[in-house]
Design goal:
There is one protein chain. With 405 residues, the chain is α+β, with helices and mostly antiparallel strands. The protein starts with 19 loop residues before the first strand and ends in a 7-residue tail after the last helix. The structure holds FE2/S2 (inorganic) cluster (FES) and fe (ii) ion.
Length: 405
């Protein structure tokens, strides 16, 4: 592969220094177009839905992977499937709502009708179609799929790696973060569009958490004794200890909102003595968070060069009693998400970065703490340097070649 082979020759090479990231990666339209081909349609799996989001036959949700709209629907046979959300006649988008319930799906343009298993059932004027026309050739197109603990993954690539190989050692923490058995019930969503390139969002490093977020400091929420791991497929795991009953300094009217009731402790007690926090980020950008009693999946997707949409989905466990469900709901909606008190400031910083990209003198981001030859795969909880491994994965998949040192 040639350096920057499908991009303008004027685009500078990737910096030679391992801990530097070029600003052009966040604001160049050709880079954004290439990301769709090499990342979102690349040899990567994208988590798109959990079983609990579609409990009944006919329940559906729509998602977008890169620029490709998908329809996730539980068929009348109880099976959850993913389809390209496009009529096979002239590519009219079918489902428009974020979530809904449907019987057969009718395209409004020429009234082709598909069932909940994606099969073409009828099309007006069929007698006038060419003699070799067969409805079975026009069923809804299906991307490759895989499931784990009720979580559905899709890949738009023709030959992605086996799902469990790609997940690697993150499988066990993912199982724990999905309640130990994946038997979840949906509490609801928070949705936000951050005004930044999607990579600004995912570059939200572990270093910043206690520095930017005031509530981290006030609550002394993390003790810094956790660890951060990076996997060969680019995934990130941060497993940390948090205080089971953090001190709120008398600031909260109802401190029970930050209490721990033992509903979601990671099983890795070495990393989480009492209450636990795990953040499991699949490469490139969707993550599962399990803080205190919170079960959260953060589905994210770019909606343009300078916007990223994040759907925070919150869950309870199927065995929870009514009090536990209420506790999880209050904790989830108050603590994290776009207005959560331990994550509130992120939106402002993402916007500020996007606004200030086109500035001198620096043309690069800088990640602290990297020493030549250092192993960044196992590091302390709040190190910044391991983000360089996310970027290295990105650089290689995009085919960008480094400058000579
Ligand atoms: S585009 Fe859907 S029926 Fe024609
Ligand atoms: Fe943050």
């Amino acid at each position: 592969m040639k350096p920057n082979d499908t991009l303008p020759a004027s685009l500078p090479r990737w910096p030679a220094a391992f801990n530097q990231v070029p600003k052009w990666a966040f604001e160049d339209a050709d880079v954004f177009a290439l990301e769709h081909e090499r990342i979102f349609r690349g040899p990567v799996w994208h988590p798109v839905a959990h079983d609990a989001e579609l409990p009944k036959p006919g329940d559906y949700k729509t998602v977008t992977v890169g620029r490709t709209p998908l329809l996730i629907i539980r068929g009348d046979d109880g099976v959850v499937r993913a389809f390209h959300n496009a009529c096979t006649h002239r590519s009219t988008r079918l489902a428009m709502a974020f979530r809904g319930h449907s019987g057969d799906i009718e395209c409004p343009y020429h009234r082709w009708v598909f069932d909940t298993r994606g099969q073409l059932r009828s099309c007006p004027g069929e007698a006038e179609f060419p003699p070799d026309f067969k409805r079975a050739d026009y069923n809804l197109a299906e991307p490759r799929t895989g499931t784990y603990m009720g979580l559905l993954f899709v890949s738009l690539h023709a030959s992605p790696p086996p799902l469990m190989d790609w997940m690697g050692h993150m499988a066990e923490p993912v199982r724990d973060a999905l309640g130990g058995d994946g038997r979840l019930t949906l509490l609801g969503y928070q949705k936000v569009r951050y005004q930044s390139n999607w990579k600004v969002y995912i570059d939200n490093d572990a270093f910043h958490a206690p520095l930017l977020h005031a509530a981290f400091r006030i609550l002394r929420w993390q003790g810094g004794s956790g660890r951060q791991s990076r996997l060969p497929a680019g995934h990130m795991m941060i497993l940390s200890e948090v205080a089971a009953q953090p001190s709120d300094g008398g600031l909260l009217r109802d401190p029970s909102v930050i209490g721990y009731q033992g509903g979601a402790a990671p099983r890795n007690k070495a990393a989480a003595q009492a209450a636990g926090s795990s953040l499991l980020a699949f490469w490139p950008l969707t993550a599962i968070a399990n803080h205190l009693d919170i079960f959260n999946i953060r589905y994210a997707n770019p909606v343009g060069l300078d916007q990223v949409e994040v759907h925070y989905a919150y869950f309870a466990h199927a065995d929870d009693d009514a009090d536990m469900v209420r506790h999880r709901l209050r904790q989830s909606s108050n603590m994290i998400g776009p207005s959560g008190f331990v994550s509130l400031e992120d939106a402002t910083v993402f916007l500020r970065i996007q606004q200030a990209l086109d500035t001198d003198p620096s043309t690069t981001f800088f990640l602290k703490g990297y020493r030549e030859g250092a192993d960044l795969t196992e590091t302390k909880q709040n190190d910044e340097a391991p983000n360089a491994l996310w970027w290295e994965h990105y650089r290689q998949l995009m085919g960008f070649v480094r400058e000579e040192a």
